[in-house]
Amino acid sequence: MKVLIVEDEPLLARRLERFCQEILGERLxxxxxxxxxxxxxARLDESPIDLLLxxxxxxxxxxxxxxxxxxxxxxxxxxxxxxxxxxxxxFEFGVIDFVPKxxxxxxxxxxxxxxxxxxxxxxGAAKFLAVKKYGKVELVEIDRVLYVEGAGAYAELVLDxxxxxxxxxxxxxxxxxxxxxxxxxxKSYVVRWSAVKAxxxxxxxxxxVELKNGLRLPVGRSRxxxxxxxxx
Amino acid sequence: MLSRLPxxxxxxxxxxxxxxxxxxxxxxxxxxxxxxxFGRLVxxxxxxxxxxxxxxxxxxxxxxxxxxxxxxxxxFRSLPSHAGIFWIRFHLRDLSAPLPxxxxxxxxxxxxxxxxxxxxxxxxxPGRNAQEERTGxxxxxxDVPAERRGPGEHVVAVRASSYRDAFPAPTMPVRIMxxxxxxxxxxxxxxxxxxxxxxxxMLMVTLTSLVMWLLAxxxxxxxxxxxxxxxxxxxxxxxxxxxxxxxxxxxxxxxxLVRWYSADLLGLCLLALLIVLFDLPRRSGWVLLALPxxxxxxxxxxxxxxxxxxxxxxxxxxxxxxVTAWRGRRAxxxxxxxxxxxxxxxxxxxxxxxLASFLRDFSPTLLGLTAAIALQVRQARRRARDMELTxxxxxxxxxxxxxxxxxxxxxxxxxxxxxxxxxxRAVRLVDDLAHGVRTMARMTGEKLIPLEQELELCxxxxxxxxxxxxxTWDLEVTNADAALRVPPAVFLTLIENGFAHQQGAGGTGKFxxxxxxxxxQRQVRFTFVSPGRAKEQPDRPAGGTGLRYVKARLEESxxxxxxxxxxxxxxxxxxxxxxGAET
Lengths: 232, 583
Fold this sequence. Notes:
Chain A is of the alpha/beta class. Chain A is 28% helix and 34% strand. The longest helix of chain B is centred in the middle third of the chain and has 45 residues, at 358-402.
């Protein structure tokens, strides 16, 4: 795992670095420290990361813009901040965890677990997904997302009006951020469960769910039984 | 622009009319005064011969058949003053009716009246010098017995002297007229009502304004309004004194002086009130006050100064109110309207202005001023309330600074990091943090604190930040008077802004505060430099909460007497604050 720590207090940055090393052990491939996210973000294309530990003052437009740019990236973002009153807002924008300062090693371990574990989910409830579009960041309301289709290192958000938005995160990472109403039905699909109308069996043990708008999506064999039980 | 055209035309027309009317009034004043006021009580059928006067004293001159044709013709408007005993003789007759039953005499002289050679009465005793002369009332009514008012011509002879006449002029006016006694007394009773009402009203407004001045934060505008009304009170008191008190003629000059100078002071108070009410610039204010005085001096030299000052003051007041209204001050329109009416009345009829018609003629101005002052007092109260709210808000802001969770929590997080590795450093950090909190707590509720205390707070903060950031931060202070008082946490906020928006070069960093005494209205200049280059914050707002706090604090303690400039300089971000005197 490659980690970027953005913290302008050197003692706290070193504390975070030490905790990451101790918790992740050999799973930690690389760790970097930067003073400001705006300075470090330019280098993210050259050396991509998996996790951003970000100290951010979310008060004001400046902080929110930085947050949106961070969560639109391919990596997970954990906010480590003293501004706990902004935690809910940070979760709405799609951070996977918000660690209040002062922090303990146990709390950092908990945050890292959400990122590293297979079924790790966000500690909050996201309302938006930030997508990069023409060099800018736009917010997509999660209520408008019908399903998400994996496309390798990226994922496509399919909205209720049929529009598609490309997201830099993988399907797994997005699934970790989406609320409980989204289900993984296939290795390449996560669907809003309330949009599912019926389950259909096709020839050759192929299964599909039919959405309320008539669209059909493939269902993975490992997920078929559970979906059938849920649909009754 | 067009919407103000009627005002310009009105103002121009008023001024032109005013100047013209003033010219006419002054030149014809005496002519208009002839026969004025009591003259209407004299029956039109009464015929009076021309009067003849002779200096000297001879009891035979009272006789009806004394031949006075060789005496020079006299004018009642210019009889000799302070010049010994003199006699006046004239003839009276009424061809269609008996003569009125009384003579009304008014003048600054002691006299005896002879009717057809018989001494009828007098107001005192004429004398050959001041000691010998016995003074009497300035005005009185002398009954003429019915048996002496028979048909035909009657001779009135007046023996007079005026050593106690306090007027500086060598001549004096005298009025002697036959009037029906009952009608005259009724007329006098009615005539006294309006000046007495005006006197009472002015006195009440004066006292009310003074009470309001005491209660309403001693606003100067109320004091000037009280002074204006007090002048009007004295003026009206002098007017009603003639009716209410029978005073000896030697006091008349003093009464007239009170009337003249109270009118002049009223004009000056009116201008001073407008200067304060409309916040006129100091230079314009001095010009406004000086012009009537120059007019007064010129008028005095020409012998008619007593009316020039008030005329100039009223016209200038109209101009001042007009210009202020033009500039968009709503209340000035009310004052302008009132002033236009009053000024017109004064110019058209200056003789009645301070007598019977004062209430009517001056009320529009009083009403306009009262409304404008009421608006201003209301605004002042609103401002005071806002200032109280600001003070409360500033106190809360200071408390928030004291309890800043972000700062405290970050510091505690650092304590958590170093407490095991370097306990001594952790203790120092906690001590510095506590020192800063204590210093800040001492400032709570203060609008101004000594600079020394502020610097102590800044240095405690810098010691904490030095441990937190691993950079040695220092504050270099030059030429700053430690006893000088500044709003609390202003420089601390600039330091916090420095940490938030500037990036140090690492290793060491030095904030610089330089003081400088100024000769101008701003007494001191502080130049503050935060070191380092600006962080990349493209969307950083121009005025964040920190700067808003600083500016609000400056305005609270130095209202409209401070300036604030900031911008990048080589090696840092510079803030220049200039402060005026404390309120």
